[in-house]
Amino acid sequence: MDTHLIWIAVALCGLVLTLIAALGLVKLVVYGLALWRAVRTPPHRDAGDYRLTQGREVRSEEQHRPD
Q1: What is the rounded distance in angstroms from the CA atom of residue 28 to the CA atom of residue 7?
Q2: pLDDT tens across 51-61, in order?
């Protein structure tokens, strides 16, 4: 009778370990697909036209310091 409980416990542990391994494999596949998608996207190419008048006035470091 006790050996049956041991085999049931071993089977349940095996089932739990199998589920954990399967979830880990699914997680690995999802991360791999996300990485594959990120690699396949083209890089961002900025074709903007920037002028000094668009932002704040550019000054040297000495002029930014308060006296």
Answers
A1: 31
A2: 666 666 556 66
How does the average pLDDT of the chain come out, rounded? 83
CB 13 within 8 A of CB 20: no
Output the pTM of the full model: 0.53
Compute, in degrees rounded to 10, the torsion defined by CA atoms 20, 26, 30, 32. Answer: 90
Q: In the chain, how long is the greatest CA-to-CA distance?
A: 89
Question: Alpha-carbon distance 31 to 25, whole Å?
Answer: 10
Distance CA 35, CA 39 (A): 6
Tell me the two tokens of residue 42. Answer: 């083209």
Q: Which residue type sits at 18?
A: T
Query: Residues 27, 28, 29, 32: is their CA dihedral positive or negative?
Result: positive
